[in-house]
Structure formats: C-alpha cells, structure tokens
Amino acid sequence: MPELFNTTRLQGKTAIITGASGGIGASTAILFARAGCNLVLLARRKEALEEVAAQAKAAAQTMGQNPQIVVRTLDVNDRTAVDALVPALKADGVKSFDILVNNAGGAVGTERVGDIKMNDVDFMVDTNLVSLIQVTQAFLPEMKRQDSGHILNIGSLAGREAYVGGAVYCATKHAVKAFTQSLLKELVATGIRVTEVAPGFVETNFSVIRFRGNEDAAKAVYKGFDPLVAEDIAEEIVWCAMRPPHVQIAELFVLPSAQGSATILHRKE
Ligand code: 8X3
C-alpha cells in the first residue's frame, strides 16, 4: 500500500459496492479490504461474488486485517429487493453504512438513434440511472442518521462528452453527473461527502457487453495504447474515500495518458 494511503482513516468502516462481482467493482472491493474496511458486496452472480469476497479476505489478511464481508446477490433493477436491502443487511450484522460505491452499470449496443432497441434503452436507463437513484435513496437515511458517509458514483467520459453510437449510454451518464451534483449540494450541511469518479477507456468486460459478446470488437477499442485497468479506478475510488473528512473530491475525471477524448486516441500501431 503506497504511503499516500493513510489506511487508518478507513479502518473499521463499511464499504458497500454494487456491481462487485467483476471489473472496477471487484478491484475496488479488494482495495477497500486491504485498507481495513468491512465490505458489503452486491451483484447478481453469487459464485463470482463469493470469489471476490475470498480474494478480498486474502488481500486484507496480507495487511493484517480481518474484515467482515457480507455477500448478497442483488439485481439493482429489482425494486423490491433494493427496498429490502438495508433491513436485510442490518439482519446480517452490518452496523454502519459508511461508503457507498454506485458502480453497477454498463452500455449495451452501439446503434444510432432510430435503430436503438427499447430493451437496451430500458436496461441502460434502469441500471445506470434509476437503480443508482434507488440505491442511493436506500442508504441515505442511514448516512443521515450517522451524520457521516460517502457516496461515490461511477460516472464516465460519456457523462462529459456525447459521442456517436452512444446516445443512451451518454444520456444516462450525463444524468448521473447531474444527479451527483444535486446530491452534493443538498448534503453540504451534513457529514456526508459526494464524489463522481468518471473514467475514460478502462479495459474490463465493459466493451464485450457493449459489443454484445464480440470479443474482437471489444479488444480493438484498446488496441495500440495502454488503457486504464480496473485497479487504476479502484485506486482513485479508495483515494477519494481516504481523504480527510473536510476534503471532498467532487469530481475525478480519469483518462488513459493516450486518450484525449472519446475519439482522440494515440494508437502506436
Ligand atoms: C467509460 C466508457 O466508452 O464512454 O464509461 O469512455 S466510454
């Protein structure tokens, strides 16, 4: 763990992560565990979640930590399940709700407006935006009661720049940015901090889903330059959470060094 990371600030806090079964969510879980956090890991795939929990536990042990890790399968689009989440976590023995990372989300398809399937619209709007709002509202009363907490929403380059073939994804991420900004303003009189972490190209399963399972198309996105990897964003998220209580990183826009915009990439070959 680099010196820059004052791990004592996070020790004993509970970090709740949606979309924790892979990619940025999984890496973030492991890094929070190394920093001494207890974890609540949420995602649809039980087996993958349990694997992440085991990795997080092992990583924490190498740092002399023994965190409580609660794993719950959850589809963030299941409104009833999200409503039942906080009472269920309390029954699981979760005592505080300190850090919420709204990470679940994704892009499906690259069709242009006119050809976008309404199922894909529903999935992206529900997963990237509506669920993020519902999950935030589920935990906010607890954080208000504690008068402490940190909500970190995963935004995107797509929340700053609208590009061809990404109308709905870009719209949802612009909305996440607006929602996050309103939330930050509404909470200034509380001990709750709000952060948007907005990455550019990160090589995870993201593009495989965007290209509907076409691995070659997904690989081509990251060809000829060093993209960000999930661990890079995990470091940024944990770094934001580790700032002293009077420091609120409102927005963190992170690009690979070879990326200038959605379409400006310096590719070596
Ligand atoms: C990050 C992906 O393609 O919008 O969310 O930069 S992209």
UniProtKB/TrEMBL annotation:
Transmembrane segments: none annotated. SUPFAM superfamilies: NAD(P)-binding Rossmann-fold domains. Belongs to the short-chain dehydrogenases/reductases (SDR) family. It comes from Cutaneotrichosporon cavernicola. Residues 39-66 form a coiled coil. The keyword Oxidoreductase applies. It comes from the Eukaryota. GO terms for molecular function: oxidoreductase activity, acting on the CH-OH group of donors, NAD or NADP as acceptor. Keywords: Coiled coil, Oxidoreductase. It holds the Pfam family adh_short. The keyword Coiled coil applies. This is NAD(P)-binding protein.
